[in-house]
Amino acid sequence: MKIPNRSIAVVFSLILLFYQTEASDYPFGSKVMSNDSDLGRLLKNMPDSTIISIWDIGTDIGSYDVGDVVYLDTPPIGTANANDVRLTSFNRYQAGTKVKPYHGDINAPLNQLLAEIRFLNLNGSQSYDIHDPVYIVQATMLYQNETIPSDKAQKDETSNPGPAGSSIAQASNVAEINSTNPEDVETPVGSSCDKGKPCPTQNDFYEHLSYTGSCEGLPQTSVCLIYSDNYVWPVSDRLLSNSPSLVGFDNNGFPIEVISCYNAEYYHILGTLLVKNEKKKKTLFIQSAPDMGASIIGSSLIRTNDIRLTPVNEMQPGSKVLNFEPDLNKLIALPVLVSFPKRTGDYACLRVFDANGNGLYDDEDSVYIDISLPFESSFGTVTINDIRLTGSSS
User: Domain ranges in the chain?
Assistant: First the structure.
């Protein structure tokens, strides 16, 4: 019996509609399980230039903070376009929803956030598994304004991640390497500094009483700096080095020590109450140029404002890690799931299910973190432990 072409088209449309409904029934941040209806679906890679970006509308303009909205930013990057995916909520739009032309954040200016998708290995298994929570963790770019020969570049470093002349936002996680030759630094009159170390001027110091309270009672965001003369200085920062370093002597011959923290260098003149701090240079925007060497350094711990992509206890996917929450400072496991920009060795890849079969990434398509095939492949299939980055209301 001959089946009319129109009937075939209707049947095909109904099947396609069924698949679309099934593909969107699962919430943002859920992991694919063995009985899920989208298991085995064919996936294709998202564009290589897809990045994670922020809309800088929080309280600390110029730095990434809890109020900034985070997006999966698809080409053309730099603005919130239709079908970019919100990874945190914005107004009434939840994480996992897509930007639409009539939404309030359409065309919002976006800045790239250097980040990696990582996981916590809760059960001590040899690899990523169904119980491991997944996060977007902030990475750090160290850069210096001088050419780094390609033969000297580290294998795991990424140089010049953006095109020449583009603006790349590092969202408060960029520290500049001072490329000035220490021998060229002018030493202040009347002071003596070790060769090759910066010499602070005594005029910048001020008196500050040594702390006599308990360091254990300080907030989690603060730390006690303890110098060789037992002078104690509590600061709101994170230690990079547990021991003070001698950098020189003041006008009267007293030693000057420094303790390095994430945000600043903290100096103390031994035997006195004199201290000073010098903030490290940080920037949200970097003009990437061919002669600028850059190294992207991943974090080893969960940090404030990292983003949960899967449920963690009572914390929902799309929520940011805040001070004093139980997963703060937890040790992150290897391997890296997804890097931005991509790196050789990534365990997973961002892929999309082309729900309407038109070959384009659009509103109907579901986005996954897919572990089925290495990122070098241009396709994969929905696999157990894949993570859905779009939800039922996307």
Answer: 140-178+283-294, 182-279
